[in-house]
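REQUEST ID: PR-0412
SUBMITTED BY: lab tech R.K.
PRIORITY: routine
TASK: structure prediction, single protein chain
INPUT:
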Amino acid sequence: MAKKKRKAGEINSSSMADIAFLLLIFFLVTTTMDVDTGIKRVLPPWVNAEQQKQDAEVNERNVLKINVSRGGNIMVGTDEYKAHDLERHGDHSHLSREVLDFLVNVDRSSKEAKEINGGMYDISQGVVSLQADDETKYAIYLQVQDELVHAFNIYRDLIAQQVYQKSFSELSDNEHNIIADAVRYSISEAEPKESKK
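STATUS: complete
OUTPUT:
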């Protein structure tokens, strides 16, 4: 008697979709993704063009203009700085010292008396205007940003010493918020200039 050939049984694939779904969830849960974080800045309130023109004429002395070229040269007003001027020696780089002097020196920026913790303190109305070429290297631009923020942090530290006789980092949360509100990061970032080829 001849043996009958048995057909191979079919593989049950009904659970394949479930397995694929579980693998997908596993990889989604366990995979880490890099998240790009931006530079934290508080944008100024919108003003119309007429008011902006009037404010610019009145407060021109309260603006410290900083331009960063694509070659990494930094113009602060009429003074030229190089990339090595961003390196800190002690507490300051040349750039952060210049910005701090602009904020502190009454001859360079106007001061406004503000009430803080029951006393009146002169707070700088100075604004740092930062502009770069569209081909400026990102690393240089971020270094300049860091030094500007560093200068404002030191200025906050000076005001905190006057008001509370403590450094800014030693303040309580409430005191910290009061000083941060009185001394804001007044950094204006202008639209990049087109590089001349």
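NOTES: Residues 89 and 97 are 11 Å apart (CA to CA).
REVIEWED BY: pending
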